[in-house]
TrEMBL record:
Ranges where the HNH nuclease domain occurs: 267-323
Alphabetical keyword list: Endonuclease, Hydrolase, Membrane, Nuclease, Transmembrane, Transmembrane helix
Database matches in Pfam families: HNH
Upper classification of the organism: Bacteria, Bacillati, Actinomycetota, Actinomycetes, Bifidobacteriales
Protein source organism: Bifidobacterium longum
Protein name: HNH endonuclease
Superkingdom field: Bacteria
Length: 331
């Protein structure tokens, strides 16, 4: 055992001895007192360990891997910010009051909201949105069946699919890094200080929730305010695929374009990754060399510069190369 670890162990042992003496001197000490003494003893143990040369050496050894993972986390958060431009706030606002002399509770009125993603409607519209979600989202939230709208939803689908893959990569990479140092970290720290260990090592917090998916709500409240229904359509991966196909079926394509263009769906994305053998076309790294690598499907000529969603204009890039390319295009 290294000298630093021995010193730390002696310090902890001394404290435990002092605690034991204190408890022995108070034969009638209540259980709460014992718990408090043990708790503070462990906190001192944590403090000594995370300031030790041994821990600092471990942190320095894996710092490059943790920084790379944190950069991936930042990239994923950037992808989550993809939006489709729906904004119902331009409808304006008003201040409504019910001045009826009748003392009705009208509980349904409390549910009325004027958020950008909420459409207050009749019962028939609310029911219709349940039967044909994509049609009603387009009709009542102002999405036209044209190529620019389709491109926005395709881009969102591509980015959000990368986000979901990236979340898995982040989890796997963290577990792999922690496993690589497991033998060097004291059992008590691994058992009772997992979150603090990750924080001290430099891991950024990761949001693994799916709250970044946009949603559209159809909401009906009766005139009397005593009855209400609502239908929420979350634009997750399956619904984004459905929207892309819905828009494509309704766009009046020119024959020349329709013959060339492909749909950026999950199926096409998988096909491009398989075609490129899960290898980045720019730097050559693959999932064979880096199992948890996040790969993305990129337009060689960006759509914003006239590029089309065709197989020969799509390539596999690792997240690092794709992020670098995006940064250069934004300059």
């Amino acid at each position: 055992m290294e000298r630093e670890h021995i010193i730390m162990a002696k310090q902890v042992a001394l404290y435990v001895l002092l605690v034991s003496v204190a408890i022995a001197g108070i034969t009638t000490a209540p259980p709460l007192t014992i718990v408090i003494l043990v708790f503070f003893g462990f906190k001192i143990y944590e403090l000594v360990y995370f300031r030790s040369a041994k821990f600092i050496a471990i942190k320095n050894r894996i710092s490059a891997h943790i920084q790379d993972r944190n950069d991936l986390n930042d990239h994923i958060e950037e992808l989550k910010s993809t939006h489709i431009g729906a904004d119902m706030t331009r409808r304006g606002h008003s201040d409504y009051h019910d001045n009826s002399k009748w003392n009705f509770k009208r509980s349904g009125f409390k549910k009325i909201t004027n958020a950008p993603n909420v459409y207050n409607c009749s019962r028939s519209v609310c029911d219709g949105s349940r039967r044909d979600p994509m049609k009603y989202v387009c009709k009542y939230f102002g999405f036209s069946a044209d190529e620019p709208t389709l491109s926005k939803f395709e881009n969102m689908l591509n980015n959000f699919t990368a986000v979901e893959d990236g979340k898995n990569s982040l989890t796997s990479e963290k577990n792999e890094i922690l496993a690589s140092i497991s033998d060097d970290v004291p059992f008590l720290i691994k058992k009772f200080s997992k979150k603090l260990l990750a924080k001290k090592l430099g891991f950024k917090d990761v949001d693994l929730s799916d709250t970044y998916y946009p949603s559209f709500k159809f909401q009906y409240v009766s005139a009397g305010g005593n009855a209400s229904t609502e239908n929420t359509i979350v634009m997750d991966i399956p619904n984004l695929n459905a929207m892309v196909n819905y828009l494509n079926d309704r766009i009046k394509w020119k024959k020349s374009v329709a013959g060339q263009r492909a749909l950026m769906t999950s199926a096409l994305r998988k096909h491009i990754l398989e075609r490129d053998n899960y290898t980045c076309r720019q730097c050559g790294i693959s999932t064979y060399a880096e199992p948890h690598l996040l790969l993305e499907v990129d337009h060689i000529i960006p759509v914003s510069k006239g590029g089309m969603t065709t197989e020969d204009n799509l390539q596999t890039l690792c997240w690092r190369c794709n992020r670098t390319k995006g940064a250069k295009l934004n300059v």
